[in-house]
Amino acid sequence: MKKMTIIAILTACVLLISCFAACNNHASDTAQDTIAPDQENAAGIDAGEIEEQQPAEEQPQESVDSGDSQENDGAQTGEKDGNGETGENDAAGENETAEPATDSPGMMALTFDDGPSKENTPVLLDGLQKRDIRATFFVLGVRAQANTGIIERAHAAGNVICSHGYDHKERFTNLSAEGLADQLDRTAKIIYQITESYPPYVRPPYGAIDQSTAARIPHPMMLWTVDTRDWDVKDADIVCQNIVDAAKDGAVILLHDLYATSVEGALKAVDRLTAEGWQFVTLPELYKHLGITPEPGKVYRGGSLATLK
Questions:
Q1: Coil/strand/helix, residue 278
Q2: Among 219, 256, 257, 289, which one carries the catalytic annotation?
Q3: What are phi and psi for residue 112, nearest 5 degrees?
Q4: Domain segments of the chain: what residues?
Q5: Cα separation of 252 and 132, whole Å?
């Protein structure tokens, strides 16, 4: 009788231990199932889908390139690049000059790089539409491909869609001929597929360009005359004031629609300056106003040709 009791107790203990081990294994499997999808997502997100989360990766600061001797002279905050005769004779076309309204101090162009942004570009488009003005967007191919609806909307509203290269990972001056062609061709095809128009202009990442690289680019290249430093200050009031302080006929203003503060600051500046009679136009409209027909392979800073090494 005692032997049977001991055997029964031992059997019960074995059963309890087996059940406990099975429960632990199940809990471990469940925990692994919960973690695995996050690990996969972290490794597999496309660059076009994380634009708002990691804008700093691309450092969209349009840094000075040694190949452009005018960068320090004309692209600093509040400084006004001359719109004189330098390079105008070479680039002038036969188009009739567009004139601003008789009571207007002149025309300026807002240009936005590195987008489109899922969050901020639609807000910007709302603001531009409300004010009945248009801008020029130098978009990245990878982001345009991921946000086709935004590009369609911008184009349909009369904004001009231009190329900033495919992914902003390398300066054009550091690329091989094949690498440069890939950056330009991929982006041009993406823009054409969305808008049925090829990009009229190219802006090199970081503003980095030299003579030999420019000669391989079959489009006019556009720099800027006013750097708002919006990517750095991230303050709407400062961005606004930088634009207002630099107001000048023929000004080309550099901004980035990745940042909400850039969008807010730009629209504030538009409100202040249009109240004074200033007109904001696209780059093609600005060059028509300046009497210039931009030529492929040449680099422009407002109404002047940039001096390259």
A1: coil
A2: 256
A3: -120, 125
A4: 2-44, 48-305
A5: 19
